[in-house]
Design a protein that fits this description.
Strand order of the largest sheet: 2-3-1-4-8-7-5-6
Number of strands: 15
Largest sheet: 8 strands, mixed
CATH topology of the largest domain: Rossmann fold
Helix content: 10-25%
Shape: elongated
Bound molecules: S-adenosylmethionine
Number of domains: 2
Strand content: 25-35%
Structural class: alpha/beta
CATH class of the largest domain: Alpha Beta
């Protein structure tokens, strides 16, 4: 066990698409990450995440106060004393982590001192105990991420929606994979109803987009404004024209390509578009429903439902 992680932070991922969730985390922070345990659901980082609330696939973040073997938990002494009220919440993370009945009281014994007391209903401090197969990680809960907020932005609840609209949670993941920071600028050349640009705008990112369809362009603007994103630059234009239309650099390009059935026509559009963005010196995160893009293999695939898989390409 490397010391740097033992004193850092533990991120509990939500459980779906763990590799993608880990990549989302890595893309949004500086410093290294390391999955621990068999499930891959706990990621440890040495550094603090500056913007944990923007993550779409992480549930909670805890500052690590102890990491060690389960069998040694009764004998340890914690480096820091906990003051005020606290509650211990355990979770058996790994599938092989055998449940132990009295683990909370054993942890309580090592935490308890004359300056603190248990309050299960309204504690000042929540201590998370992530129980893996052989080891245990204790952390002071710092952040619970409200992933329900994405449901409040469901496509059907927006002023303008379409069957092509991207799920807000997945749109946020794509934005995060680009590593874009607040104050930087993003381009979505196939912006549709604005699924990606809404999530980027809510992260404090400057946004620009094109769509060939006038109705989409109008609808995208309405949707952005519904969420208070007033500064936007959305043009009715074909995607490959974006470099000349905007005539400026972007910090990331994030887009969800058209899923046309007429394959030759769609392929031609995509080929022209891919050539046009070569001039941009930034990360490109592109989603499509084909498992090859411009000779590349996808970095991730997501099974949206039994007959629909989407592929994500990350091009640096
Ligand atoms: C998969 S949808 C994007 C959906 C979008 N992410 C959203 O959340 O609504 C692809 C979009 O590409 C647009 N489109 C198709 N061909 C285009 C082209 N040559 N240039 C720009 N947009 C185009 C379509 O009108 C459609 O809105």
């Amino acid at each position: 066990m490397k010391q740097k992680y033992n004193e850092g932070y533990a991120f509990k991922l939500s459980g779906e698409e763990l590799n993608l969730a880990e990549r989302e985390l890595k893309s949004t922070m500086s410093g290294s990450c390391k999955a621990v345990g068999k499930s891959g659901k706990i990621i440890m980082t040495a550094k603090k995440h500056e913007l944990p609330k923007r993550l779409s696939m992480t549930q909670e973040v805890a500052k690590i106060i102890h990491r060690g073997l389960r069998e040694e938990i009764s004998g340890i002494s914690l480096k820091e004393d906990l003051e005020g009220s606290y509650a211990v919440r355990k979770e058996f993370i790994d599938p092989d982590a055998k449940p132990e009945k009295n683990i909370e009281s054993r942890i309580g014994n090592i935490i308890s001192n004359r300056n603190n007391y248990v309050d299960l209903d309204n504690p000042n401090t929540v201590i998370k105990a992530y129980v893996l197969e052989d080891e245990i990680i204790l952390g002071r809960l710092e952040q619970e991420i409200d992933r329900g907020k994405f449901d409040q932005r469901k496509n059907q609840d927006r002023p303008f929606s379409s069957p092509v609209s991207l799920d807000p949670k997945l749109a946020r993941t794509l934005v995060n994979l680009s590593g874009i920071r607040p104050g930087e600028h993003i381009l979505d050349p196939f912006c549709g109803t604005g699924g990606i640009l809404i999530e980027a705008g809510l992260c404090g990112v400057g946004i620009a987009g094109t769509d060939i369809d006038e109705e989409m362009v109008e609808g995208c603007r309405k949707n952005l404004e519904e969420y208070g994103i007033i500064n936007h630059d959305i043009r009715q234009e074909s995607a490959e024209k974006a470099p000349e239309v905007f005539n400026r650099e972007f910090d990331a390009i994030v887009t969800d390509l058209p899923y046309g059935r007429s394959s030759k026509k769609t392929e031609d559009i995509i080929e022209t578009f891919m050539n046009s963005i070569e001039s941009y010196d930034c990360r490109k995160v592109i989603m499509w429903n084909r498992d090859s893009l411009d000779g590349r293999s996808p970095d991730f695939s997501i099974d949206v439902h039994s007959s629909l898989t989407r592929y994500i390409y990350i091009i640096d």
